[in-house]
Design goal:
With 173 residues, the protein is an all-alpha fold. It has one domain. The chain is 63% helix and 2% strand. It has six helices and two strands. Strand 1 and strand 2 form a beta hairpin. Helix 3 packs antiparallel against helix 4 and helix 3 runs parallel beside helix 5. The longest helix is centred in the first third of the chain and has 26 residues.
């Protein structure tokens, strides 16, 4: 029994996601709490948790890019907008269920990221930051002005029904 923490014996152990059995138990309890959250809480708390989850998706992507790859990205919000509009348009226009539109939105954001990323493969530092800055200007302009009849333009924007998973509606306020 270890009294004062987990000690790594092999190099690969230091990169493990679950370092101890306690970490696995905590993750299981957290996932159980997330599954029970719509039943246990009200609309306001669920809305705050949804906003936190959406922001976490963005920050984890940025953490991977900046923290692990050491690259600078200024266009993170633009790629998030591509995913958001893709999900909204699939739900509104193609009547996709939310659980199907959500991964499609991630794929669309990834494809747009490839469109900007492939020409930027040899860029580093400041120049890569400028390429992503271009994405942060071009993508919102395209969303707003190319087909405002579909995207809602500047006003009123895109109105999407709240996501529904297994009969539970996740309302963002």
């Amino acid at each position: 029994m270890k009294l004062f923490g987990a000690f790594d014996v092999r190099y690969t152990q230091s990169f493990a996601i679950f370092r101890t059995r306690f970490h696995k138990i905590l993750l299981g309890l957290f996932l159980l709490l997330l599954l029970l959250l719509p039943v246990l809480t009200g609309e306001q708390t669920l809305s705050v948790v949804n906003q936190i989850a959406i922001t976490s998706i963005t920050t984890v992507g940025l953490m991977i890019l900046v923290g692990y790859a050491g690259q600078i990205s200024i266009g993170q919000s633009a790629f998030m907008a591509v995913g958001a509009y893709t999900s909204g348009l699939l739900v509104n226009l193609a009547n996709f269920p939310f659980l199907l539109a959500f991964p499609c939105a991630g794929l669309a954001a990834g494809l747009v990221g490839l469109i900007f990323g492939i020409p930027s493969l040899r860029l580093k530092g400041f120049y890569l930051a400028m390429a992503t800055l271009a994405a942060s200007f071009i993508i919102p302009w395209l969303i707003t002005w190319v087909r405002p009849d579909i995207t809602g333009g500047v006003h009123p924007g895109l109105t999407v029904p709240p996501p529904e998973i297994f009969g539970y509606f996740f309302i963002l306020s």
